[in-house]
Every structure is written in C-alpha cells, then in structure tokens.
User: Which sequence fits this backbone?
C-alpha cells in the first residue's frame, strides 16, 4: 500500500501515517524502487491496534506503548497489556475507597483521634499505592493534614485518611493541585461531599468506558502479536 492507501484503510491522513511511523507506532515502511514508502498488512494491523489503544488509554500513553508491542519480545508485550488491566482495576479501587471515605466526617486538623484509627505515612502510602513523598507534598500544599507526633513523625487519623483518599482519586483522574484544593476547602467549609461524589462517580463511569474500550482493542492487539510470528 501507499501512504495514502494505508491512511484511507485506517482512518488517518497521509501526514498522520508518516507521523505514526516516525514515532515508532507502526513499523518502518519499506521503500520501493522509486523511493516511495510501501506499507503491508503488518503496518495496517499496527495502526488499527494503536487506534483502538488510543480510544482505551489515550493517544499519548498508546504512542508510548506501541513501540514495545511492536519490537519487544512477545512475553514483555503481553505483560505490558496485562499492566493496563491491572492499572484500571487499581484506579477503580482507589476511587471506590475515596467514595467510602466520604462517609467519614472531615474535621479540622489537630483534633484528637483514637490511636487505633491512625496510620503511619508508610501504611497510608501503601494503602493508596503511592510514594510517601506524595503524601508529604500534599501536606505541603495544604491538601492533607496529618497529626504531628514529633518534628519528624506523622500519623493520619480518620479525616486525614479521607482527605488523602480523595486527593489520590482526583489526582488519578487528572485534577491539578489548585482544583483539588478548592474542592476540599468546599467540603471542609460546608460539610458537603456532593461535588466530590459527583466527580468520583463520573470517574467510575469513565473507567468503565476505558475498560470496555480496552476489551474492544484486545482483538487488534492479538492480531498484532500473532502477525509478528513469534512464539506459540
């Protein structure tokens, strides 16, 4: 196929096809005797796989992933695909944890909590699937208010755990620090979690769409790996 013919088959312009090749999203084209690019079935398979992946996880992550699916060993490529499903499940779990956390009343920092309800920074970071440094950053930004034991120790009571769950879920949804700060301030001032609930419920709907789109991409990804002719 010519560049234009491939573009027509997969729904891209001629320039988009060239860009996909330059970015490693599709394999390099062969050159005909006249110097023009010549594409074959494997290029169409890769382009269709990318288009389906972009619908499921977004164009930028799909562009980053496609070179691995094209060039890495099949086992490594399959592992990366598995990671996508795991990532969606983990994010869905974080959003649901945040929704459950909204049942805990947010209170001002500094109020005493039962020691049995408190978590260390390491425990909370592990529960949320983030680094302790993220919790420290959120504290510096005024998003999360842990209790202070000494100058170097923190403990997280019910309110701080709820705050951290909300921040983790909104950050995973693409919300920036200023927007999250406004949302949390509204919750603290008005004891109204309705806005956060609407955002998180919307996030769950979006995650469901992505999961379904990833299932739709599975056939194209299977064709891509089979087309490489490696392994069983």
Assistant:
């Amino acid at each position: 196929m010519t560049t234009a013919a491939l573009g027509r088959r997969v729904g891209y312009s001629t320039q988009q096809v060239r860009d996909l090749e330059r970015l490693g999203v599709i394999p390099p084209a062969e050159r005909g005797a006249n110097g023009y690019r010549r594409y074959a079935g494997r290029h169409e398979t890769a382009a269709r796989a990318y288009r389906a992946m972009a619908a499921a996880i977004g164009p930028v992550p799909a562009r980053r992933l496609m070179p691995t699916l094209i060039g890495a060993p099949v086992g490594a490529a399959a592992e990366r695909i598995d990671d996508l499903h795991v990532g969606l499940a983990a994010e869905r779990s974080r959003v649901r944890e945040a929704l459950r956390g909204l049942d805990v009343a947010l209170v001002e920092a500094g109020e005493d909590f039962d020691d049995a309800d408190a978590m260390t920074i390491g425990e909370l970071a592990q529960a949320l699937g983030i680094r302790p440094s993220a919790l420290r950053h959120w504290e510096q930004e005024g998003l999360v208010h842990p209790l202070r034991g000494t100058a170097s120790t923190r403990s997280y009571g019910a309110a701080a755990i709820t705050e951290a769950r909300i921040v983790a879920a909104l950050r995973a949804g693409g919300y920036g620090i200023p927007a999250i700060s406004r949302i949390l301030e509204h919750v603290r001032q008005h004891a109204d979690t309705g806005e956060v609930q609407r955002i998180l419920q919307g996030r769950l709907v979006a995650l469901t769409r992505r999961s379904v789109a990833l299932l739709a991409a599975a056939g194209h990804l299977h064709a891509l790996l089979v087309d490489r002719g490696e392994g069983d």
